[in-house]
Amino acid sequence: MSTTFFCPFCGRQTPDDEQICPQCGKSFDRWREKPYEERLLLTLHHPLMEHRMMAIQILGQRRYERAVPEFEEIMSAGQDVYILREIAYALSLINTNDSRRLMAKLRDHPSPIVRKACDDAAGANPKGVSR
């Protein structure tokens, strides 16, 4: 049985034994050469929501500041409230001026799920301690 593999660059489902994506033409060796955090940034655009959520969580735990602009882009696209909830937790862990600015935006989100995540993240993580 073959495993399901998605191109890390374009997200197209691809046979796991391919070396180059038939859709975008990028080599999977380029993926393997990237640092872990950079691969996580690419995973933010993965077609499976579970993969995106896991990447958000790990980027937050690693306090990876380069994720903040990516999170802002996701927020601007009006993503699923559960994705935005994870972004709120991650931003609270990253805890920079930019991440706090984005948290302020999320606190005004129409979804109670997102607003509660902001409150929970701020209450459980007042000094940037991992949740």
Characterization of this structure:
The termini are far apart. A hairpin with a 6-residue loop joins strand 1 (5-6) and strand 2. This protein has a two-stranded antiparallel ribbon with strand order 1-2. It contains seven helices and two strands, in the order ββααααααα. Mean pLDDT is 85; it is low at 126-131. The protein has 131 residues and is mainly α. 57% of the residues lie in helices and 3% in strands. Helix 3 (49-61) runs parallel beside helix 5 (81-94) and helix 5 (81-94) packs parallel to helix 7 (112-124).
Short summary of the structure?
The chain is 57% helix and 3% strand.
List keywords for this structure.
single chain, 131 residues, mainly alpha, two-stranded antiparallel ribbon, 2 strands, 57% helix, 3% strand, elongated, disordered C terminus
Decide which structural class fits the backbone: mainly alpha
Q: Helical percent range?
A: 55-70%
Mean pLDDT: 85
- H and E order: EEHHHHHHH
Query: Total number of β-strand segments?
Result: 2
Proportion of β residues? under 5%
Number of helices: 7
Shape: elongated
- The largest sheet has its strands arranged as 1-2
What profile does the largest beta sheet have? 2 strands, antiparallel
Uncertain regions spanning at least 5 consecutive residues: 126-131
Distance between the termini: 38 Å
Query: Using only CA atoms, what is the Rg?
Result: 16 Å
